[in-house]
């Protein structure tokens, strides 16, 4: 009887991680909800810890790129209310993307240890 209860409890605990639920979550994910989701923040923290411990330049650069692009999108593109792109919202996004790209090229290819 205990084995069956353990299996049922495990199935109930892991049901949010079913493929259908994950696909639904990713389809309805917005930048604001991604930055406030503890699972995503926890994943980034674990990834950052791994990158620092292993001294992996590639993982740190990927982490920098993902976080900076998320912040760039959140602060430069219009909110949910406005769907139109204007020059005042597109230029900071373009130059921010260029700055992120330049920083990545510098740290990955130019700077040596």
Give the tags:
113 residues, mainly alpha, 6 helices, 79% helix, 0% strand, flat
Helix percentage: over 70%
Overall body shape: flat
Radius of gyration: 20 Å
Low-confidence stretches: none
How far is it from the N-terminal to the C-terminal residue, by CA?
59 Å
Name the beta content range: under 5%
Structural class: mainly alpha
Verbal overview:
- There is one protein chain.
- The protein is mainly α and 113 residues long.
- It contains six helices and no strands.
- It is flat, with a radius of gyration of 20 Å.
- The N and C termini lie far apart (59 Å).
- The mean pLDDT is 77.
Summarize this entry quickly.
This protein is mainly alpha-helical and 113 residues long. The chain is 79% helix and 0% strand.
Topology (SSEs and partners):
Layout: H1 2-14, H2 19-27, H3 31-36, H4 38-54, H5 57-76, H6 87-110
Helix pairs in contact: 4-5, 5-6
